[in-house]
Amino acid sequence: MAGRRFSLANPRSISISKPLLLLISLFSLLALFLIISPKIPNTNPSRSAIAPIRYFPSALDEFFSSSNPICSATSSSVQLNDPFVSRREKERLYGTLSDPWAGSRVLQVYVYEMPSKFTCDLLKLFRDTYKETTNLTSNGSPVHRLIEQHSIDYWLWRDLIAPESERLLKNVRRVYQQEEADLFYIPFFTTISFFLLEKQECKALYREALKWMTDQPAWKRSEGRDHILPVHHPWSFKSVRRFMKNAIWLLPDMDNTGNWYKPGEVCLTKDVILPYVPNVELCDTKCLLETRAKRTTLLFFRGRLKRNAGGKIRSKLGAVLNGADGVVIEEGTAGEGGRELAQRGMRRSVFCLSPAGDTPSSARLFDAIVSGCIPVVISDELEVPFEGLLQYNRMVLFVNSSDAVQPGWLLKYLRGIDSTKIREMQSYLAEYSRHFVYSSPALPLGPEDLTWRLIAGKLTSINQCIARSTHMEQGPRFECSCKGGNNTRVRSSI
Known about the structure:
This protein is of the alpha/beta class. The chain has 2 domains: 56-273, no CATH class; 285-436, Glycogen Phosphorylase B (Rossmann fold, 3-Layer(aba) Sandwich). It has 17 helices and 11 strands. The protein has a 6-stranded parallel β-sheet with strand order 2-1-3-4-5-6, with helices on one face. The radius of gyration is 28 Å and the shape is globular. Keywords: Glycosyltransferase, Golgi apparatus, Membrane, Signal-anchor, Transferase, Transmembrane, Transmembrane helix. Residues 105-414 form the Exostosin GT47 domain. The chain crosses the membrane at residues 20-37.
């Protein structure tokens, strides 16, 4: 019967051919898929294969030579519909099917597009005068080198404004609608303006910046509490910054002497301490291995021995250490020749002295870290960057000032540290150095990344203070401002 045709086949042959036919069908479908599938271009090439730029003048040359529209005459043509930004903003608002809360872990930052006199004009001024100038500060430090080591404002801004497809940091992203922002970034280069403009011109620019910023609706809504203000040099914005004390200040330290920050201006509750930009090049793993046997100097210091405030301890240390066996104490600045001498000296030393300067902090701490030289910090009031994220006692020695100035005490202490402990601390320096090297593009676990992690931890209290300010008078119960001193502490030696 015609309807029973397949029942006449050999049952054994059917059992063999079914798997074979299935396999052939799968291969045919795969081949067909590969042929007709459209080729997807790689729209997000990895930047990790490109060597990051770590030198500020080189970074500026690259920035101005690129097609970045921020500093161009046609800045209004900035593409606001970057597909990467658009997609991720939607994820933030609506979540994803797999993880509806994924977007809540990423900081949304609105970057103000301030007039160019506050931003690009200042960067161009620095770049155009960098090679020609011989300007020195009152204490003899090269001005442009000083600006470099406080250029954290540039590195953070440069990462935020980069096209999303070129960025490597995924814990923060720029948004273009103020209502979608968690935080607001103020891209005013206060250190460049302080050092390179005439005094009265600088003060006038500061007043203009203050008015421009405090006139913004977002500032008025929160009284500046969710705004980020980079003032990394203690003189930056000094004449008017008291009017912006509610903002999140990015600082080099928490000086509590009153010389730089007035009581009530700064505190760890709202502000963030960032590392200086190192003056010396990073001594990478290969460099560390090559220099290990060459570290014949026990203790090294090169810098200014006469400083103000807490830095007066430098002259005392120089008096008790100078001429001692295995110790190199040199007077010098961070100029080009001084930079090379400092780098060479640190790479030949086991320990590097890092006493207080005019403020409790000093760029020398970070120069030592990236040089693989164990820092010996003598600054009782120092607050270090990223504390809570990093364990400094693994790679840094903190010594009380009263002990350090006792004749013979410090050298006896250092010589008593066994070689196993030294090698262990050196290995941690090699591991931790990446946390202190700014770069473009900003790298995961670099200082830019850790900065946003710390700020993210403050976001809940910031929002709480903004909410409380709408219904509570700023009296004793309104604990949303820095009270009294600057919340520093005296650190004991380890």
